[in-house]
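Q: I'm building a small set of examples for a reading group on sequence design. Run inverse folding on the following structure and report the sequence directly after it, with nothing in between.
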């Protein structure tokens, strides 16, 4: 009886954290977008890192959706994806990368994403891609971290966005442990907690670079 009661409490806590995580994700990339618009440049933002993030989010969303996991355990993905795409557009605009090639790339991405979600791409392919999300997602954060350390300037990088990223990844470690205990997902989120925290600290330290 006690075991059942403890399990119920854990699931309740998991649901509360999921709701908090999803709610927080509604503004995850907003501070970063506003920061870029404020300084009117994307210096310090690594475009390759953003595209890697987009790839990782798309695969993870598709994996959870196709496996029919509880919606609350992954609902942040479609929310983040929309913001990520908007952020990428602004970064590309300020880096003068919006051209015919980027439009073709957008169409290709849309077709692939639709295939992953709608079942055109076999489940086995998605299962193969999911483990790659950990190195892809980790690499995107490492690239961003190195960009900040290299330039020693994080003027256009939002500390709040990276704090939210670290927090939401941390809460997902708990909720997934309770809901599905999927080791692949746990490893992915665990690594991202450490790396998001590292980028957040670096962004804070170099937020106001010393002028020569």
């Amino acid at each position: 009886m006690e075991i059942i009661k403890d399990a119920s409490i854990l699931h309740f806590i998991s649901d509360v954290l999921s709701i908090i995580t999803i709610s927080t994700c509604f503004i995850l990339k907003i501070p970063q977008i506003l920061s870029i618009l404020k300084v009117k440049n994307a210096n310090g933002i690594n475009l390759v890192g953003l595209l890697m993030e987009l790839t990782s989010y798309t695969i993870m969303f598709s994996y959870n959706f196709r496996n029919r996991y509880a919606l609350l355990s992954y609902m942040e993905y479609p929310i983040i994806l929309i913001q990520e795409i908007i952020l990428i557009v602004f970064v590309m605009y300020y880096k003068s990368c919006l051209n015919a090639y980027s439009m073709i790339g957008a169409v290709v991405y849309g077709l692939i994403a639709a295939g992953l979600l709608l079942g055109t791409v076999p489940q086995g392919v998605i299962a193969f891609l999911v483990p790659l999300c950990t190195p892809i997602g980790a690499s995107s954060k490492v690239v961003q971290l190195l960009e900040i350390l290299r330039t020693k300037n994080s003027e256009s990088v939002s500390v709040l966005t990276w704090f939210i990223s670290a927090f939401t990844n941390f809460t997902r470690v708990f909720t997934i442990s309770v809901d599905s205990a999927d080791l692949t997902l746990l490893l992915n989120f665990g690594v991202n907690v450490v790396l998001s925290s590292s980028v957040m600290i670096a962004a804070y330290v170099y937020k106001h670079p010393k002028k020569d």
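Helices lie at 2-25, 30-39, 47-66, 76-94, 100-118, 123-151, 159-179, 183-205.
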